[in-house]
Amino acid sequence: MTKNQREAKNASMCLDKVFLNYELKKHINVKCDETDGLDTGTYGKLQLLVESEEIIYRNKTAWYGGGNMISFGEPRTGDKEFADAHDSLVQYSYRVIHKKDIVPHIPLNGMEGFHHHRTEIWYNNDMSTADYKECKEQESPFCSDSHLDFMIGDHHRYYGMYMSYYGRRNCTGDPAN
């Protein structure tokens, strides 16, 4: 495993712990930025800034629809046209956000046209209970957009797991550390 590895090399080892019946169609690693080669996550504040700049000002990729995305801490990935197309083509889609996670607010709403698709599941707590708010609208002001104090630490911890370390260990060991 290289120092750049941010997630499980074998995704099925993690998925097996959560799902009884699933089919992993494809696992793809792509070059996300110029700082880290093949990149599978955001590592540190500098990379967060570089990735934000690249998302906003570099060439954009066409999306033709399909898939189910349950995402955790997803940044804004497209414009309003993309969000509308996503919402009409992908019926089962949720963006889960932990408390003050900064990444879902990058790029800023409307900056260069960026806009979130629906549906946001927002945990304004430590995620240890099923106490969350569901906002079905795009860019709802009643979920995570309802506050302005963001933290990178909330991006790394979801449901009590330190996501990067747990993934690097192929979802084995103590997920909290």
Automatic annotation (TrEMBL):
<dbReference type="InterPro" id="IPR029058">
    <property type="entry name" value="AB_hydrolase_fold"/>
</dbReference>
<feature type="domain" description="Fungal lipase-type">
    <location>
        <begin position="68"/>
        <end position="109"/>
    </location>
</feature>
<dbReference type="Pfam" id="PF01764">
    <property type="entry name" value="Lipase_3"/>
</dbReference>
<dbReference type="GO" id="GO:0006629">
    <property type="term" value="P:lipid metabolic process"/>
</dbReference>
<protein>
    <recommendedName>
        <fullName>Fungal lipase-type domain-containing protein</fullName>
    </recommendedName>
</protein>
<dbReference type="InterPro" id="IPR002921">
    <property type="entry name" value="Fungal_lipase-type"/>
</dbReference>
